[in-house]
Amino acid sequence: MRELSHYVGGHHVQGTSGRFSDVFDPCTGRVQARVPLASGTEVADAVATAAKAQPEWAAMNPQRRARVLLRFVDLVNRTMDDLARLLSSEHGKTLADSRGDIQRGLEVVEFSAAAPHLLKGEFSSEAGPGVDIHSLRQPLGVVAGITPFNFPAMIPLWKSGPALAAGNAFILKPSERDPSVPLRLAELYSEAGVPDGVFNVVNGDKEAVDALLVDPAVKAVGFVGSTPIAEYIYATAAAAGKRAQCFGGAKNHMVVMPDADLDQAADALIGSGYGSAGERCMAVSVAVPVGQETADQLVARLQERIKALKVGPSLDPGVDFGPVVTAAAKQRIEGYIEAGAEAGATLLADGRGLAVDGHADGFWLGPTLFDHVTPDMAIYRDEIFGPVLVVVRAADYDEALRLCSDNPFGNGVAIFTRDGDAARDFATRVDVGMVGINVPIPVPLAYYTFGGWKASGFGDLNQHGADAFRFYTKTKTVTTRWPSGIRHGASFVMPEGS
Ligand code: NAD
Question: What pLDDT does 88 receive?
C-alpha cells in the first residue's frame, strides 16, 4: 500500500500521528493509498518552519518572486499529462476535465506574476506643506489554505499563487480524498525555486484544521468547501483574530426564457449539470424554464440528450463523466434521488444502479433528471453535489428571478435568452455573486474575482483578481514631512487636510 506524506521545509515528511485516511480509486472502488492525518504538533512544526522561511522570501523583490512563479507554471505545463492522470485517478473526473482543473489554477498563478504591479502602493505629493503620503502593501506572514476534493489542483493554486507572489509563506491543507496532486505541486514549487519552507502541505482532517485555526503565527485562512464547514472556519478564524475568506456550497439555477435557443440551453444544462459528475461548485443543478411550453420543450430535449451520455472510467476516451468521489458520496446522492421520488417530483431519468463493464465496484451514478420539483423539496433545498438536475417550472420571468434570489445559496446563476433587456435586468437584480448570460458556468477569469454571496461565501474579499492581493497583504500608510515644511514650535492642534 502506497503511503503518502506531508511536505514541509522543502521535503516529504512521513506522518507521525499514527492516523491515516484511505485514498480510493473511484473507478474501481479500491483503496490505492493512505494519507497521514497530521496531529496538532505536526501542524505546529510546519507553521514554525514556514514562519522561519517567510522573511527571506518577503525580502526578495516581487519581480524575482514572479519569475519563480513563471518557472513553476512552465514546469506544471511540462508535466501536465502526468498530473492530469494522477488527478483523475483519485478524483474520478475525465482526463480532459483534470487538465482544465490544472489549467484554470495555472491561470491564477500567471496572473499573480503581475505582483510587481499589483503590489504597488499609492503616493500623494504635497498632501500638506512639505508633506507626502504613501502606502505600502506588505505580506501577512504565514497564511493557510484549506481546500476541497473537487478541484485538487485549481483551488490550491488559486490560493497559493497570489499568497506566494505577495511574499507570504503558505500552508496547504488539501482534501484527504485526493492529496497526491497537491503534493506533486509542492515538489514543483521547490523545483521552480520557491525556498524550502515557503510552500508546505500538511495532510489531515479536522484536527489539523483546528490546529491551524488557533496557531497565532497563522495570519490568514482561505477556505473552500461545504457551507457548514465554511461557516465554522470563518467564525473560528475570526475569533482567533485571523483574516478569513471562506467559500461554501451552492445551488446554481439556470433560467431559460421562452425566446432562448432551446437546443443551446439544453446542451448547456447537460454539460454544466452532469460534467464532472455534478461535483462542481458552479454546476447548474436547477433548471428554471419560464412558461409551460418552454418547460415541455426543454425537458424533451434534456431527455433525448441524457440517453446519449456515456459514463465510464476517467481515462477512457469518449466518456462524458466518471464516477463520484466515494462510496459515501454515492450513497448520499442515491438517498436524495429516493427522497425526490417520494416527495412527488417526476423522476424522468434515474442514475441509480448504473453498471460499468469491468468496474463493478466503482462509485457509479448515471445522469438523473427530475421534473415538477417544488422549492419545499429536499432535492431543491440542499446541495446534492452529484449528477442530479432538477427542473422547477416558473410561470413568468418575475417568478424565476425571485426563485434564484430567494435561494439561500448565491454562488452562480445563468439566464438563457435573446432579450437584452431581460438579460440586463436579471444581471442587475439577481441576488447572486456570479452571473452568466447564455453562459452556464460563469467562472470569471483570473483577472476578475471569484466569489459567491449569502451561504456560498463568508468574508468580504473574493478569490483571485485584485481582491486576492488585498486579502494576502496588509496596507501600511506612511506620512512624511520634509524639513522644509516644518515650522518651529510644538503644535497642539489636530492635523487636518485643509
Ligand atoms: P468539505 O467541506 O467536506 O471539505 C473541505 C475541506 O475542509 C477539506 O480540506 C476537509 O478536510 C476540511 N474539513 C472537512 N470537515 C471538517 C471539519 N469538521 N472541520 C474542519 N475542517 C474540515 O468539502 P468537500 O466535500 O471536500 O468539497 C465539496 C464542497 O465544496 C461542496 O459543497 C462545493 O460546493 C464546495 N466548493 C465550493 C467552491 C466555491 O468556490 N464556493 C468551490 C469548490 C467547492
Answer: 98
Residue 101: CB within 6 Å of ligand 1? no
Mean pLDDT, the chain, rounded, equals 97
Q: What is the pLDDT of residues 140-182, one digit of tens each?
A: 999 999 999 999 999 999 999 999 999 999 999 999 999 999 9
- What is the 69 CA–ligand 1 centroid distance (Å)? 27
- Residue 209 Cα to ligand 1 midpoint, Å, equals 12
Ligand 1 neighbourhood includes 399 CB (under 6 angstroms): no
CATH dotted code for 252-437 = 3.40.309.10
Q: Could you state, in order of their start, the residue ranges of all structural domains in the chain?
A: 2-248+456-478, 252-437
Q: Ligand 1, closest atom to CA 329?
A: 25
Structure confidence at residue 498 (pLDDT): 65
* Residue pLDDT, tens place only, 283-322: 999 999 999 999 999 999 999 999 999 999 999 989 999 9
Our answer on whether the CB atom of 35 is closer than 6 Å to any ligand 1 atom is: no
Tell me how far the alpha carbon of residue 416 lies from the centroid of ligand 1, in angstroms.
30
Q: Provide the annotated active-site residues.
A: 281
Cβ of 462 below 6 Å from ligand 1: no
Please work out whether the CB of residue 151 comes within 6 Å of at least one atom of ligand 1: yes
List b or e across 293-302, with b for residues whose CB sees 16 or more CB atoms inside 10 angstroms: ebbebbbebb
Mutate to test the pocket of ligand 1, among 206, 207, 229 (most ligand atoms within 8 A of CB): 229
Tell me which residue has its CA closest to atom 22 in ligand 1: 206
CATH architecture of 2-248+456-478: 3-Layer(aba) Sandwich (3.40)
Å from CA of 229 to ligand 1 middle: 7
